[in-house]
């Protein structure tokens, strides 16, 4: 589509409204404004590409932006909609304009009753200028007016420094990378850095692109406060009922909670079962100066373990690996000796927990590098300085409800 055709016929610009649903009450809290254009064939063409196309003159993009924002604000005032509107700008264009077009528009409609604390200015991290000083200055002014800032992330952990400087009220992330054949909870660490930063700066996480049950589950597990996507509701030319998604979303949340409760119960049951077996075996197995005693220990728990090893309190492995081979026999693999595992996430936190609680700990689900399969590890304190680790294979976990 030729951008000039749009400029000549601005009246054919159509704002669509993409609902944003807040998790706490499962109600529509606002809308993202999306621009469409009704072409000569009476077909509606989405114009996302236009606002980030730097080959189009600034003046033209500013005019189109202002027109579509104006239409949306007028509808908000006319319909007495109390929620928020999210209005998009290319950040570099915004800086070159010094935010004047946007700020003038807000002031014009503020006089007509627009509450500026219901306006969200959204930008993409891929469009942020290298030097954010001027943008930060404009944003600080907008915040004094009550305008909130949303930053959409293309790269989950690529713009954290800029986010820390700009202090947005919303951080928007995409769930579309998550396919239906993937387990959502395995990918929650993708946005771990973003989630931690959002809590520190007081920003809410908004997950967009939710097109499936699993993607919604991922957003829920990842601490999403706001949701968008066709799985819940489509963009429309009108505002929808505030509770349009409430019944379905309430039911989904109930299912998520039930599953998490079942999973927690299964993990506690596994902990009790493993503890009972290992505690009994340890009391019956005499520890020797070499690692041969681990072979006897392994035979007693071969139904749910494929590898055993011992580390000290600083993460240094002080035993060989005792591993089950393809034929089901246990062997000592000396090359495991003296490996350092202190780099593993939560290693020292778990060591401290075992020292204080005097009991074993079951790890999260993770992928074992050597076997390339999902496993869990049960760690148990032998003393204040030695800790024994039991790796539990996927074949065992898949047979138990709630362990995957």
| Beta-strand content | 15-25%
Major sheet attributes? 8 strands, mixed, barrel
Distance between the termini: 48 Å
The secondary-structure element order is HEEEHHEHHEHEHEHEHEHHEEEHEEEEH
Q: Which CATH class of the largest domain applies here?
A: Alpha Beta
**Unreliable segments of 5+ consecutive residues:** none
Examine the coordinates and then state which fold CATH places here, giving the name of the CATH topology of the largest domain. TIM Barrel
Radius of gyration: 28 Å
Please tell me the total number of domains: 2
Number of strands: 16
Assigned CATH superfamily of the largest domain: EAL domain
Overview of the structural elements:
By secondary structure, the protein is α/β, with parallel strands linked by helices. Helix content is 37%, strand content 22%. The strands form 2 sheets. Strands 1-2-4-5-6-7-8-9 form an 8-stranded mixed beta barrel. A hairpin with a 5-residue loop joins strand 11 (321-324) and strand 12 (330-333). Helix 3 (58-78) packs parallel to helix 5 (100-110).
Q: What are the SSEs and their pairings?
A:
Elements: H1 3-8, E1 13-22, E2 27-38, E3 44-46, H2 48-52, H3 58-78, E4 84-88, H4 91-96, H5 100-110, E5 119-124, H6 133-145, E6 148-152, H7 160-166, E7 170-174, H8 192-201, E8 204-208, H9 213-221, E9 226-227, H10 246-284, H11 292-300, E10 307-312, E11 321-324, E12 330-333, H12 347-357, E13 361-362, E14 366-368, E15 373-381, E16 386-392, H13 394-397
Parallel strand pairs: 2-4, 4-5, 5-6, 6-7, 7-8, 8-9
Antiparallel strand pairs: 1-2, 1-9, 2-3, 10-11, 10-16, 11-12, 13-15, 14-15, 15-16
Helix pairs in contact: 3-5
């Amino acid at each position: 589509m030729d951008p000039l055709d749009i400029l000549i016929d601005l009246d054919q610009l159509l704002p669509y409204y993409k609902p944003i649903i807040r998790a706490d009450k499962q109600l529509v809290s606002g809308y993202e404004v999306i621009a469409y254009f009704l072409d000569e064939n009476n077909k509606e063409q989405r114009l996302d590409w236009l606002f980030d196309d730097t080959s189009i003159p600034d003046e033209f993009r500013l005019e189109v932006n202002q027109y579509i924002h104006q239409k949306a604000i007028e509808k908000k005032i006319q319909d007495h909609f109390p929620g928020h509107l999210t209005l998009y700008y290319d950040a570099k264009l915004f800086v070159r304009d010094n935010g004047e077009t946007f700020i003038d528009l807000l002031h014009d409609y503020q006089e007509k009753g627009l509450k500026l604390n219901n306006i969200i200015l959204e930008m993409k991290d891929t469009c942020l200028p290298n030097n954010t000083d001027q943008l930060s200055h404009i944003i600080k002014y907008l915040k004094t007016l009550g305008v909130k800032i949303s930053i959409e992330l293309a790269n989950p952990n690529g713009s954290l420094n800029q986010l820390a400087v700009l202090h947005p009220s919303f951080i928007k992330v995409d769930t579309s990378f998550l396919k239906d054949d993937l387990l959502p909870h395995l990918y929650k660490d993708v946005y771990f850095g973003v989630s931690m930063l959002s809590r520190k700066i007081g920003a809410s996480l908004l997950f967009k692109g939710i097109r499936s049950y699993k993607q919604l589950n991922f957003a829920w597990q990842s601490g999403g406060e706001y949701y968008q996507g066709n799985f819940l509701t489509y963009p429309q030319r009108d505002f929808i009922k505030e509770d349009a998604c409430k019944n379905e979303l309430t039911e989904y949340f109930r299912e998520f909670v039930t599953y998490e409760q079942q999973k927690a119960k299964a993990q506690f049951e596994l902990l009790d079962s493993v503890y009972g077996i290992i505690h009994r075996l340890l009391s019956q197995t005499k520890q020797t100066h070499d690692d041969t005693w681990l072979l006897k220990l392994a035979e007693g728990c071969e139904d749910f373990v494929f590898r055993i090893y011992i580390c000290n309190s600083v993460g240094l492995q002080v035993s060989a690996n005792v591993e089950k081979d393809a034929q089901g026999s246990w062997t000592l693999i000396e090359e495991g000796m003296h490996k350092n595992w202190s780099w593993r996430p939560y290693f020292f936190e778990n060591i401290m927990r075992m020292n204080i609680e005097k009991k074993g700990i079951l790890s999260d689900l993770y992928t074992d590098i050597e076997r390339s399969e999902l496993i869990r590890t049960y760690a148990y304190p032998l003393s204040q300085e030695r800790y024994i680790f039991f790796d539990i294979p996927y074949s065992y976990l898949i047979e138990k409800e709630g362990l995957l």
